[in-house]
Specification:
Helix content of chain B: 25-40%
Oligomer: heterodimer
Number of domains of chain B: 2
CATH class of chain A: Mainly Alpha
CATH architecture of chain A: Up-down Bundle
Helix content of chain A: over 70%
Largest interface: A-B, 45 and 52 residues
Number of strands of chain A: 2
CATH class of the largest domain in chain B: Mainly Alpha
Strand order of the largest sheet of chain A: 1-2
Shape of chain A: elongated
Order of helices and strands of chain B: EEHEEEEEHHHHHHH
Largest sheet of chain B: 5 strands, mixed
Distance between the termini of chain B: 70 Å
Structural class of chain A: mainly alpha
CATH superfamily of the largest domain in chain B: Alpha-helical ferredoxin
Number of helices of chain B: 8
Largest sheet of chain A: 2 strands, antiparallel
Radius of gyration of chain B: 21 Å
Shape of chain B: elongated
Radius of gyration of chain A: 21 Å
Strand content of chain A: under 5%
Order of helices and strands of chain A: HHHHHHHEEHHH
Distance between the termini of chain A: 61 Å
Number of strands of chain B: 7
Strand order of the largest sheet of chain B: 2-1-5-3-4
CATH topology of chain A: 3 helical TM bundles of succinate and fumarate reductases
């Protein structure tokens, strides 16, 4: 067991932690996006979906704690690697000519940091109601379903994203998440040791492809609301 | 042609370095980059000044001794070429050329452009070898090796250990070097007995030498003078993980019957 734990603490072990936690977080982002796209299907769908999630009870908390642990591991390992990599070159080059690396690969720590800040903001906004608290409170018990009053998540989203500043901050955050994923997802193949030449094009295309899907999917919600295409019935 | 050189000068490992500017006048386009530096050094010696210290040996691109970052690119602007094989025709009259040493904490500067690469030797000692019987050479093809495996091993074996991968990596990581060694022997039947120990030992030694961590920028493969593919890093990752999972402490390394 000792050799296994030493290996986990090595640079490849850290790389593996980044890849596997990154994959799990990507799974969450995809599921989160698909769930939220129900906003296009109208208030009944998304409010019922939100109600189901909020009533999972202990499962919801298990998911939250699991997600937080994975997220914490991803951030902590990234920070550890970043500081070690900074220290590995104490004297910088006078001339730097990037050729194979990409803007995305060189800015992973910064795109990651901004996405982290966005996630805090997003939780304060739609989960805790600390941002746009008036909207959060007004929509809290505003939806009448068969079994009583539920939060009107649809109205909360629509009224929230009618503020251009809020909607655009979400769009910017998604663009940075896309940049982060365009390098991250392609990297996973290399880290997990996929070497088949047949996979070479998949390796290269997977990141930008996944990033595009997520950026389009997630940005469509605030943009559609901002442009008045969704939420006409909400005042 | 006439050139302006901005060269990193540093007296010793612990003294601060700085860039010095030199003029290289009447440089023939037919000579190599190192011959151009030889000319500058001869002039400096004639003027009673200290010549620029740089490493070189075979000057035919196979020993891996020359090591300088030319205008931000290890071994200069031509792909698949060592600095000694770089010709001055790749530059034009009036160019300003910045020459720096490999910059990595694990490669401390000895003097000017000369760095100490013994960290690579210590990584090799941790497993970049096979156990073979000494004595007369075995018959050719006594051990059958499929052609694709032989080719893959040969591509990785082209590594000359120059350290350009470390110099090119934004993180100062040595993983292309380690990957080349792990992949080279891992593809061959002779490399199987030590395969797990090699992957574990060499990676852990690279970490201990305080090289950076690979984050898949792929600058290493782009600047490798032997054009070693970054797939060797993926192969090393796989070998390393497999070795870590099935790791069992070795019972006895060798015994006598």
């Amino acid at each position: 067991m000792s050799r296994f734990t030493t290996a986990l603490g090595s640079s490849i072990g850290a790389k593996l932690v980044m890849a596997l936690t990154g994959l799990a977080l990507l799974g969450f982002v995809l599921a989160h996006m698909i769930g939220n796209l129900q906003v296009f299907a109208g208030p009944e769908k998304i409010n019922a979906y939100a109600h189901t999630l909020q009533n999972l009870g202990p499962i919801l908390w298990a998911m939250r704690i699991g997600l937080l642990t994975i997220f914490g591991l991803h951030v902590w390992t990234a920070f550890k690697l970043w500081t070690a990599n900074k220290a590995a070159r104490p004297v910088p080059y006078a001339v730097v000519v990037p050729s194979a690396s990409t803007y995305a690969s060189r800015t992973m720590i910064w795109s990651g940091f901004i996405v982290l800040a966005f996630i805090v903001y997003h939780l304060l906004h739609f989960t805790l109601g600390a941002v746009q608290g008036d909207i959060f409170q007004q929509t809290r018990e505003a939806w009448t379903a068969a079994d009583g009053k539920h939060p009107d998540v649809y109205a909360m989203i629509v009224r929230g994203f009618r503020s251009p500043a809020v909607a655009l901050s979400y769009v910017v955050a998604q663009l940075l998440l896309g940049l982060h994923l365009s390098h991250g997802v392609s990297s996973v193949f290399q880290t997990l040791g996929f070497t088949s030449p047949r996979l070479a094009c998949v390796k290269k295309a997977a990141g930008p492809l996944v990033a595009t899907v997520i950026v389009i999917g997630n940005c469509s919600i605030p943009l559609a609301i901002l442009l008045g295409l969704v939420g006409k019935g909400v005042n | 042609m006439n050139l302006t050189l901005k060269v990193w000068r540093q007296q010793g490992p612990s003294t601060p370095g700085r860039f010095e500017t030199y003029e290289a006048k009447g440089v023939s386009e037919h000579i190599s980059f190192l011959e151009m530096l030889d000319g500058v050094n001869e002039r400096l010696l004639g003027e009673g000044k200290e010549p620029i210290a740089f490493e070189h040996d075979c000057r035919e691109g196979i020993c891996g001794t020359c090591s300088m970052v030319i205008n931000g690119e290890p071994h200069g602007p031509v792909k698949g070429t060592t600095a000694c094989q770089l010709h001055m025709r790749m530059f034009s009259d009036g160019n300003v050329i910045t020459i720096e040493p490999w910059r990595a904490r694990a490669f401390p500067i000895i003097k000017d452009l000369v760095v100490d690469r013994s960290a690579f030797d210590r990584i090799i000692q941790k497993g970049g070898f096979i156990s073979a019987n000494a004595g007369s050479a075995p018959d050719g093809n006594a051990v059958p090796i499929p052609k694709p495996d032989a080719d893959a091993a040969f591509e990785a074996a082209a590594c000359i250990g120059c350290g350009a991968c470390v110099a090119a990596c934004p993180n100062g990581s040595a993983m292309l070097f380690v990957g080349a060694k792990v992949s080279h022997l891992g593809h061959l039947p002779q490399g199987q007995p030590e395969r797990d120990l090699r992957a574990l030992g060499m990676v852990q030694q690279a970490d201990a030498e305080l090289f950076g961590n690979c984050t898949n920028h792929y600058e290493c493969g782009e600047h490798c003078p032997k054009e070693i593919d970054v797939k060797v890093i993926a192969e090393m990752n796989r070998d390393f993980v497999r070795a870590a999972i099935r790791a069992e402490e070795p019972k006895q390394v060798a015994g006598s019957g």
